[in-house]
């Protein structure tokens, strides 16, 4: 199994950063031109993007990736997994939030990945690492 980890500081309190990153629509900004659409709400009507919610990702009408939120601990942690993808055997994303000063938050974004085809995991993770670094930097500037 292969993994990556990206750390990014945000000049905002944990609650504000968590609120931003816990919304599926935020990823339209972070990962443009990739588009993210929630296709299933969570059971919690106050947090439709919470545990059990499913988002579809892609470009235009082609959105082959589906991710499901599996853990959502407010101001601490979000976990998701890819579902229904014939190319990916295992994908677990974890976003952790840590207050490092009054108005400063450290976000640690980790991904474990195992593709079904040998030697593909490292290439996918390299692309994801670049995209996540750029996306988190965009979001940090927006706060």
Automatic annotation (TrEMBL):
SUPFAM superfamilies: Bet v1-like (SSF55961). It comes from the Bacteria. InterPro entries: Polyketide_cyclase/dehydratase, START-like_dom_sf. Pfam families: Polyketide_cyc2 (PF10604). This is SRPBCC family protein. It comes from Acinetobacter towneri. The lineage of its organism: Bacteria, Pseudomonadati, Pseudomonadota, Gammaproteobacteria, Moraxellales.
